[in-house]
Write a structure and sequence with these properties.
CATH topology: Immunoglobulin-like
Order of helices and strands: EEEEHEEEEE
Pfam families: Ig_3
Largest sheet: 5 strands, antiparallel
Protein name: JAM2 protein
GO biological process, one term: leukocyte cell-cell adhesion
Structural class: mainly beta
CATH class: Mainly Beta
Oligomer: single chain
Number of domains: 1
Distance between the termini: 37 Å
Main location: other
Keywords: Cell junction, Cell membrane, Disulfide bond, Immunoglobulin domain, Membrane, Signal, Tight junction, Transmembrane, Transmembrane helix
Length: 103
């Protein structure tokens, strides 16, 4: 079964240095969907735990299975427009509407 349009929870504002968790969920996809988060239209990288310099700038943890995007300490750099996409390889992937978070 193709995924339904996911529901995204993105806070509109967040204080610098606080923990922020965004969530994305859809219920109809079978097999269960995987979730990809985007910021300002660019796919966010999944942190793999490698010590590369590029990964050192990643301040979040993205879980493709549960759809959560967790920022341990948000910074002004995390301000932007976020949305998530659900896909399970069947039918078209589905996106939620873009939501802006201001830090």
């Amino acid at each position: 079964v193709a995924p339904s349009t996911p529901v995204c929870e993105v806070p509109s504002t967040a204080m610098t240095g606080t923990v922020v968790q965004m969530s994305c969920k859809e219920t109809e996809g079978s097999p269960p969907s995987e979730y990809q988060w985007y910021k300002n239209g660019v796919a966010l990288l999944e942190k793999t735990g490698t010590g590369s310099a590029r990964a050192a700038n990643i301040t979040y943890t993205m879980n493709k299975k549960s759809g959560t995007l967790l920022f341990n300490t948000v910074t002004k750099n995390d301000t932007g427009e976020y949305f998530c996409e659900a896909s399970n390889g069947i039918g078209l992937s589905q996106k939620c509407s873009v939501k802006r978070m201001q830090v």
